[in-house]
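Q: Can I see a sequence and its folded structure?
A: Here is a first one.
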Amino acid sequence: MRPGEPPDALTIRTKAGLTQSGLAKLVGTSTSVNSRLEDGDYEGHSLAMLRRIASALNKRVEIRFVSVKRAAPRHRDEVPKALRCPFFQSPTSRLG
């Protein structure tokens, strides 16, 4: 976990002093489900399950939309028309 980054499921569980099986009992699920949720590559998190875990750990789930840095356009058509330079357009693209 990097500084300023929200804690992950494993960090929260271990700070609470719980094993995977202990948390599973509190949440009403299996140890294997908790193991998958703690896997950084797992993408099957459901909001309902995250809320159940948060509730068992006296936490809440927070979802935020944050700005991301956009990659540079890879194709001329991805550049807004106002920013396109006419010197780099093909002669046929100037016709229309």
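Q: Show me another, different protein.
A: A second, unrelated one:
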Amino acid sequence: MPKQVVSANAFIEATRRPDVKHIKIIRVNEETAKFKLKTAKKEFSLTVKKGHLIQSIIDSIPENVKYEIVEKKQIVDQFNAVEEEK
């Protein structure tokens, strides 16, 4: 079960952990994004509803941590494709 992080500063501190595997950023729209951080033992999630804060969090991710940005529409399209195959 992911641990909900309520502040951007706590999430940024979690990105500096030595056991971070990757970060997935889901862009819901221009003003909202969900950040999913996967470590060796835990998962952290953060929902940001301020557009200017999203880019500053992305900029503060350490360079050695891999991250990917996914649009919400891509996830919905993949789900619909799987449903059509059934």
